[in-house]
């Protein structure tokens, strides 16, 4: 059960809810300067009344050169607490190297440890040929190499989250839908999230003015309804994720900000 309790954290945190069915997108206006090197965000995952896992979202302290492009390195780590790890230990890391000029990912990476299952994956994005080159390594298998066609404006699992932070939500109306192209796990997706307005949110890190987003869900056996996952990001220039709630058939799950530092702008903390 621990594995399924932990999955909503992944979905809610990165908005990885990309499905191939029709939604009319709205034109988007993007901002710059929403994050900076050295940003640190920490979270706690609650399942019912128990802390089931923790997570960190970081921007590395320095820039990296990837495919001759200066890049931010953004990385996310999630792990189960010792109590829940007794049933199924999880420690996963996802990273994206994003071009500082056009915010396109040049490389993505993930290290997966879920029980006995382990995987290391590197993906390089070639926009001249519109191809993604995928390299995978399992401990007990030969290294796998494959290549896939991608759209020009593609995002990966981590860069897509940071791209959502760049949107000017003041230009959007309640009910508008954001659609971006994404590539993950060897598949191209449409990345769809609905904007549901603004309000206040309480977290362990304080009370914030917040923007409410809902990933659009199809009918499935894990989540309870189309709007079963709700996410709040700060209504300021940082737009950091504050809170995510998932209504599952197995029970409710909540991901909550516990601390932050290194933000580029003064956060909009009410108290």
List the helices and strands and how they pair.
Layout: H1 2-14, E1 40-47, E2 50-59, E3 64-66, E4 69-80, H2 82-85, E5 90-99, E6 105-114, E7 117-126, E8 131-137, E9 144-149, H3 157-165, E10 177-184, E11 187-203, E12 206-215, E13 229-234, E14 241-248, E15 251-261
Description:
By secondary structure, the protein is mainly β. It has one domain (2-261). Helices cover 10% and strands 50% of the residues. It contains three helices and 15 strands. It has helices at residues 2-14, 82-85, 157-165; strands spanning 40-47, 50-59, 64-66, 69-80, 90-99, 105-114, 117-126, 131-137, 144-149, 177-184, 187-203, 206-215, 229-234, 241-248, 251-261. The protein has a 15-stranded antiparallel β-sheet that branches. It is globular and about 50 Å long. Residues 1-24 have low confidence and may be disordered.
Number of helical segments with 4 or more residues: 3
Distance between the termini: 36 Å
Number of strands: 15
- Mind summarizing the main beta sheet? 15 strands, antiparallel
Shape: globular
Spans of at least 5 consecutive residues with low confidence: 1-24
Order of helices and strands: HEEEEHEEEEEHEEEEEE
* Whole-number total of structural domains: 1
Indicate the structural class. Answer: mainly beta
What is the residue-averaged pLDDT?
83
Query: Which radius of gyration do the C-alpha atoms yield?
Result: 18 Å
The helicity comes to under 10%
Q: What portion of the residues fall into strands of 2 or more residues?
A: over 45%
